[in-house]
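User: Batch of two.

Assistant: Item 1 of 2:
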Amino acid sequence: EIKDLIRLVSDIANKNNIPAYLIGGFVRDLILGVKNFDLDIVVEGDGIKFAEVISGKLNVGLIRHRRFGTATVILKKHLKVDIVTARQEYYPEAAHLPEVTCGVLKDDLLRRDFTINAMAISINRQDFGRFIDCFGGSQDLANKEIRVLHNLSFIDDPTRILRAIRFEQRYNFKIEPKTLKLLREANRLKMLERVSRERLRDELILILKEERPLKPLNRIKELTRFDFINSGLSLSKKTSQFLKSIESQISWFKRKYPKRRQLDTWLTYFIGLIDQLNINNIKLICKKFSFRRGEEKRIAAYKKLNPKFIKELSQDKIKASEVFRFLEPLSYEVIILIKAKFKNSSLQKHIEDFFEIYNGTHLYISGADLHKLGLTPGPYYQKIFHRVLNAKLDGLVKTKKEELELIKKISEDKSYGAK
């Protein structure tokens, strides 16, 4: 599918007489033999118009980023193609977004973060497959080194500090000595604190989405610390152990329940990282980084857990309906965090039973069945459903017939609005 897509883009480029090249991360991972299904293509021409032709040809969606002359073509099966207008960049002020002008391929390669991301492959008909490496990226790949393209790289864009760490740890590379010196100097100048919070948030999320995020987090601890998140945040031994436990529980969940709603793993790790902070600091972080409401709610839900909740969930003899009552309102992420943090064997079993048995339990009966029994619709319907569900969870009723019989008893005993 990727090959067919590249050929299609090549044909469109040829018909419109536009030079086009594969570039960046896709080329890097192609050389490394790492799976990467996101195509990055640079064109010497109008990238947005070119992307519009591709999306029209494929009848798929398109997202335009006019300020930078780029567009993203959204394909099925989680594939996407980023189309970039070859451009030059000028940073009017350190740590701010650049001013851009049109350029040629070499200009676009020069503005990249690291040499390993500044390689290209022609997909033009006349030289299809020609490899272009102006800055020694292939040699740095061979040497397993992360190298910036110029001395002001981390000053122009300090988020490259986090990116250097992320790529270094992902591929088990090393930041080469000169680049490491430049990184340390940018950190000494507190350049990360001059970047917009939203850009920092996005880079942090990418780190936490890595397969083994604890590795780059440890490197951040070593090279920059976590002041760019909160001055009181550190990666203590206790926090590291918690994050390792989170990693283990995420693996357990993915292995056991591959068809369930996917975890927001980055958010789970993030909550683990900031667990040491008090609620006021956490609220400040959420506001600073402009987290979505759903993300804030899950963070708050975890921080609101109290010792009484954990004590009751840790009891050996507790009804299934009680386990359900405790855990059903919580997100998967919060439940995984509880499982990772508290090692009580009864609590562990209750959570495992919740995922395996109770979560998703539903009743056979509906509002229509209650109406047929002569119960006038009203708020008490939910009370009835709640009682029947608890009985089902506790194994007291199993079939629809038994559910209906229980409803009859409830309505007789409690006078639930009979006609």
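Item 2 of 2:
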Amino acid sequence: MRLSPDQVHAIVAATQELAGADARVRLFGSRVNDQLRGGDIDLLVECARPVARPVWLAAQITARLQRSLGDRKIDVLVVDPTTELETVHRVARAEGLLLQP
């Protein structure tokens, strides 16, 4: 995984603060592979409760992380129990790494 412990901590803290303490966040995509270089930070935020405005929550998390991690490309997907899962969600769950503080 190509994130520092400080970056992981910032991601988990921002996610739990904005999405709730029970929210889980997974890193997926190219940053999971230590052999690659560069790439954006792809995150899947899984909420246990329904989210009224998931796109707004994703934007808030992205903005918070860009301020704390620097201006880099960050993609955030939010799923909740009402989300109709698409292929990208299934792949992120299957191949992503659960981030823990």
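The longest helix spans residues 54-69.
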